[in-house]
């Protein structure tokens, strides 16, 4: 599939230079980066599922505890 992506000029120059150094296309580098991000997200989702039954603590309660203990 073909699409258009808009990059900041500086980022695109760096990406293009990286593609040249790696003897890859810009498209291949972008596709690999997106695949990596999707896989990382899937790992995060799987990790969250394994922890869904753990007790949770509110941030406010943690701050209060730290204040009570003189840490803040």
Question: What this model shows, in words?
Answer:
68% of the residues lie in helices and 0% in strands. The chain has one domain (9-68). The chain has three helices and no strands. It has helices at residues 9-22, 26-50, 59-68. The radius of gyration is 21 Å and the shape is elongated.
Task: Give me some keywords for this one.
72 residues; 3 helices; elongated; mainly alpha
Strand content: under 5%
State Rg. 21 Å
Cα-to-Cα separation, first versus last residue: 53 Å
Q: Helix fraction? A: 55-70%
Note the overall shape: elongated
Biggest sheet details? none
Question: What's this model, at a glance?
Answer:
By secondary structure, the chain is mainly alpha-helical. It has 3 helices and no strands.
Write the topology of this structure:
Layout: H1 9-22, H2 26-50, H3 59-68
